[in-house]
Amino acid sequence: MYSRSAFQRQRELLKQVSRREGGLLAGVSVGLGVAQLVFLRWAEERLDDATATAIAGVAFLAYLALVAGLLWRYQRKLNAVRPRCPNCGSRLEGLSARVAAATGRCDSCGGQVLE
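Above: the chain's sequence. Below: its structure in token form.
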């Protein structure tokens, strides 16, 4: 069981990890997306269509792989710090975490989460 202060610390840690990892994900995805648009503008003027399309296609696939990897990492890090029910082991996320904070019980099994 969590004490109320330990549960609140866990929720704060979750917010910190979410901000840090979400900022990285957003920065990389937006930054590389803008870089691809700039490249496409540049390639229209200086490269033939087949070469520009091939380079842009490969760059886009690499972009997708990187963003998917960062998204996977984001979810993994959030799940690592997300509180769990001490009885059934289910993750207390979103509405479940709010219910546990308000009632002190798991909404999945009904077990006591908070002392």
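The longest helix spans residues 4-46.
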